[in-house]
Amino acid sequence: MSFAGAVKTFGAVRAVDGVDLEIGRGETVALLGLPHSRLRSTGGTPIGAGKSTAISLLLGLNTPDTGTVELFGAAPESAVRNGLVGAMLQEARAVPRVTVGELVAFVARRYPAPMPVERALELAGIGELAGRRVDRLSGGQTQRVRFAVALAGNPSLIVLDEPTAALDVEARQAFWQSMRGFARRGHTVLFSTHYLEEADAHADRIVVIDRGRIVADGTGEQLKRAAGGSLVSIDLAGRPTEGLDRLPGVRSLEIRGDRALLRTDDSDATVRALADLDAIRGLEVAPASLDDAFLALTAHELETV
């Protein structure tokens, strides 16, 4: 799949702003974005990161104003129609008085070369639910039914938009176990999530989109290193902060109450310099998390228009 200079605007907002992206067969890719709820467009609408719009372009639900989006060398709507792409979107309603097996079989019949219903249910981890009514399932079970429906066309690519939103921890774990089973068979998976730990744990590659543009693309470890390899924190105990941001290895300094947090590329050198200053009271050293990387990549000053 590929985006080449894709642009999509809604009024004055460029929801997707010149995106170039290639995803190869067999990759599991997380798409992360930070909605800037405090930032407002000229029309007063909250400005989003652009990931939902990018997904809509990928699935042929919208078309780019300029640039191109292709799936398997064809237009997205053609790939979707031929069963090459399965999607699990956020908005969906349970179908009344229909069993799980009946629903998946109905969807499968819409495609030219569908996955056997039993196989789709097995991959989704709900084989025992085939005879249960869809509108009488728990939230976690319903989410896995949606996954089975997305598998019904036997897709090469599956797109999951916030697939574990509102699920409890046990249901989330069950869902990702099912998804990994699908990915292990060489299929491509693209998922968006606001659970950063899920992206770190389950994606081969993480793409961060911010205000319509890709601001980072790499593994979780690469993104963490880009944000600064470690966080060194100390108690200030009334000491001045001047010069702390110029210590060896330090990339940035943040003051939180009575503690100073130093983002550093070389924690050993930073700690030695702090020791020379007799400033290691309450010393803590921790690796940068994906949360740290994400916030550093998407940090913006408040804008007024």
Key descriptive features of the protein:
4-stranded antiparallel beta sheet; disordered C terminus; alpha/beta; 305 residues; elongated
Q: How would you characterize this protein structure?
A:
The chain has ten helices and 15 strands. It is of the alpha/beta class. The chain has a six-stranded mixed β-sheet with strand order 7-8-9-3-10-11, sandwiched between helices. It has a four-stranded antiparallel β-sheet with strand order 13-14-12-15. Helix 3 (100-108) crosses helix 4 (117-123), helix 4 (117-123) packs across helix 5 (139-151) and helix 8 (220-227) packs across helix 10 (290-298).
Helix-strand layout with pairing:
Blueprint: E1 2-10, E2 13-22, E3 28-33, E4 36-40, E5 46-47, H1 51-58, E6 66-70, H2 76-81, E7 85-88, H3 100-108, H4 117-123, H5 139-151, E8 157-161, H6 169-183, E9 188-192, H7 196-202, E10 205-210, E11 213-218, H8 220-227, E12 230-235, E13 250-256, E14 259-264, H9 267-276, E15 284-287, H10 290-298
Parallel strand pairs: 3-9, 3-10, 7-8, 8-9
Antiparallel strand pairs: 1-2, 1-6, 4-5, 10-11, 12-14, 12-15, 13-14
Helix pairs in contact: 3-4, 4-5, 5-6, 8-10
In short:
The chain is of the alpha/beta class and 305 residues long. It has ten helices and 15 strands.
* Share of residues in helices: 25-40%
Strand order in space, largest sheet: 7-8-9-3-10-11
Proportion of residues in extended strands: 25-35%
> What's the helix-strand series?
EEEEEHEHEHHHEHEHEEHEEEHEH
